[in-house]
Amino acid sequence: MGCGTGSFKSVFEASNFTYFGVDIDNNDELNNIQKCDITSQSLPFEDNSYDLIFFKMVIEHLTIEEISNCLSEAIRVLKPKGNLIVITPDWKWTYKFFYEEYTHQTPFTSSSLTSALKMAQFEVKYCQTLIQLPIIWKFPFLKVIANVACMLYPITHKKNKFIKFSQERALLAIANKP
Q1: Which domains does the chain have, with CATH numbers?
Q2: Strand, helix or coil at 178?
């Protein structure tokens, strides 16, 4: 949902997923992307038809009412036990610069995202802060260096990706349809 140009298509297909995307600004039949305003329209898919919905850095751009619509549509099109993955900025780490992106509307903490998902009838399996650096996923001991970089360098130091993503932490939520 909110797939843009479909930059994650190859990642999903490499993992043997059939990819379909929806985006407000894009209609690309070759890449299986349909134009859809997820804030107010029904998703153009049948009930109980998908195993996974991926929602990366989109939900924070929506109002509470729009989020409710999106999550209701997600639960409608997911198969029973289907998974929803949400990645959004973690307010506890990004509050100083969250609204520098003028389209941001709704910040989330782990507890508020968990509540929103539960209110939409999802079973929340995981909702935690994510450091957006794959090297830390592979070598968790490097988290200490990311924490030090976060404290030592000003938030405006965006040229170094290690420092930038040490500061711009996200929430990763995994939930499923009962």
Answers
A1: 37-134+171-176 (3.40.50.150)
A2: coil
| Whether residue 159 has pLDDT greater than 70 | no
Whether 169 contacts 90, CB under 8 Å = yes
CA 136 to chain CA mean position, Å: 19
Q: Are 50 and 78 in contact (CB under 8 A)?
A: yes
Distance CA 16, CA 156 (A): 39
Name the nearest CA neighbour of 55 among 3, 15, 93: 3
33-89 residue pLDDT tens = 999 999 899 999 999 999 999 999 999 999 999 999 999 999 999 999 999 999 999
* Residue 133 to residue 131: CA distance in whole angstroms: 6
Mean pLDDT, rounded, of the chain: 89
